[in-house]
Amino acid sequence: KSISLDITKAAQFLNEGAIKSYEPHVKAAQEALENGTCPGNDFLGWLHLPSSITSSFLKEIQDCANVLRANCEVIVVAGIGGSYLGARAVIEALGNSFSWLVGDKKNPTIVFAGNNIGEDYLFELTTYLAGKKFGVINISKSGTTTETALTFRLLKKQCEAQRGKEEAKKVIVAVTDAHKGAARAAADKEGYTTFIIPDNIGGRFSVLTPVGLLPIACAGFDITSLVSGATGMEKACGKDVPFAENPAAIYAAVRNGLYSQAGKKIEIMVNFQPKLHFISEWWKQLFGESEGKENKGIFPASCDFTTDLHSMGQWIQEGERTIYETVISVEETNERLLFPKDEENLDGLNFLSGKRVDEVNKMAELGTRLAHVDGGVPNIRVSVPKLNEYYIGQLIYFFEIACGISGNLLGVNPFNQPGVEAYKKNMFALLDKPGYEADSKAIKERLSK
Ligand code: PA5
Questions:
Q1: Three-state DSSP class for 426?
Q2: CB 336 within 8 A of CB 356
Q3: Distance 171 CA to ligand 1 centre (A)
Q4: For residue 441, what are the CA distances in angstroms to 232, 421, 432, 435, 444?
Q5: What backbone torsions phi and psi does residue 139 show, to the nearest 5 degrees?
Q6: Which residues are catalytic?
């Protein structure tokens, strides 16, 4: 079994032959990726990453995770953007939605930080961690990202204060560049266990490096199976797979067709399982940061259904016709829950008695699909047989390779992100960071006018 793609309800919005017309362009894009002749070719380390991960490397990660698991009731994963979203996406997709609330005897609680500068958030986090045996995975490729570095300083001090400096060293791990950055310097000085983020893998393509694998292993999930799913997809989407059989090629072609030929400027990633919320967040970063440049790019949005059918559903059904949907459809749930019969039937729901809750959900999904397509919203469906490590691994690689191809079709460099620097420059200037003196002066003058 494998994840699969259904584009029939999107193809009907395109002229006949429109998708097929992308075949030579997709082929050229895949060859450019393979041969390293595309823009951003120094960031292609993710392309054959799954098949190059060895079992001894996975064991090294698992061994580190086991030390953290044995010594921590809580593990704080500090990182932002590509150093955050992949791990959270996988952990939430596979985990129990309530484990953070009720605790899980078998696994440490994983919490995420370093992804915001909310004082209340950090105060509440440090209060929650007070008196707890906690560890930290500090993830930053550059090793200098403000949100993460600021959080790590707080956590490091608290961990050392609570466990003593020597004990703290055992439960602080750095995932960072091999040589550069403050996170590397601190890790080397303190003697933390470290994992390297390869130079040729950008943040949003790094979930299958220790950036994602270590937190995922810490949460108790099977990283071997995750990587094996991704490896399977690497094969299924290879450059020699015929266009019509290559799901990533087809997805890239359809979305570019919808964008350039049907005026569909917004792609809404939709799920019918709340635990997929962060898969959409990860996907938004992957496509948004890769394609949104040079005044081009599909805007990646997301909705959690059926929840958002009661809010954004109105817009999707009847708002401006510039959107299409990509639905991640989970074929089989992991658990079973039958809807009970009630003699009094006060709620009038006895027509559902004896049905699985998922049957109701599936009819909501089908009904929504029909309604939205009728309303002029093209629909792409990505079917996932079940939520487990293997299929999530497939899904990750599917979107990564599709993004690499799609960005090339759009004619941008999908592997850089020059636009994310603008806010940082202003923030540092406003905070009088050393080295920003001229910018500080200029920005203050501008604001005083
Ligand atoms: O995809 C990206 O490159 C970014 O989202 C980065 O991952 C993010 O800015 C964090 O950077 P770093 O890992 O250097 O702290």
A1: helix
A2: yes
A3: 23
A4: 54, 19, 9, 12, 5
A5: -115, 115
A6: 289, 424
Best mutation site among 142, 200, 399 for ligand 1 pocket (most ligand atoms within 8 Å of CB): 142
Amino acid at residue number 389:
E
Instruction: Write down the ipTM of this complex.
Output: 0.98
Ligand 1 atom closest to 148 (CA): 15
Please list the ranges in the chain whose pLDDT falls under 50: none
pLDDT of residue 100: 82
- 174: Cβ–Cβ under 8 A, 6 or more apart, which residues? 137, 138, 139, 183, 184, 186, 187, 192, 193, 194, 195
Q: Which two tokens stand for residue 127?
A: 């209060």
- CB within 8 Å of 3: residues ≥ 6 apart: 233, 247, 382, 383, 384, 385, 391, 394, 395, 398
Q: Cis omega (within 30 of 0) on the bond before 37?
A: no
Distance, CA 82 to ligand 1 centroid (Å)? 5
Torsion of the alpha carbons at 299, 305, 307 and 308, rounded to the nearest 10: 30
Rounded to a whole number of angstroms, the CA Rg of the chain reads 23
Q: What is the pLDDT of residue 149?
A: 97
Distance (angstroms) between ligand 1 centre and the Cα of 77 equals 14
Give the Cα separation of 197 and 160 in Å (integer). Answer: 25
Query: What pLDDT sits at residue 251?
Result: 98
Nearest alpha carbon to residue 70 among 153, 135, 142: 135
Predicted local confidence at residue 353, as pLDDT: 96
Residues with CB under 6 A from ligand 1: 80-83, 140-142, 145, 148, 202-204, 289, 417
Residue 152 CA to residue 136 CA, distance in Å, equals 8
Please count the residues of the chain.
449
The pLDDT assigned to 421 comes to 86
Q: Which atom of ligand 1 is nearest to the CA of 205?
A: 1
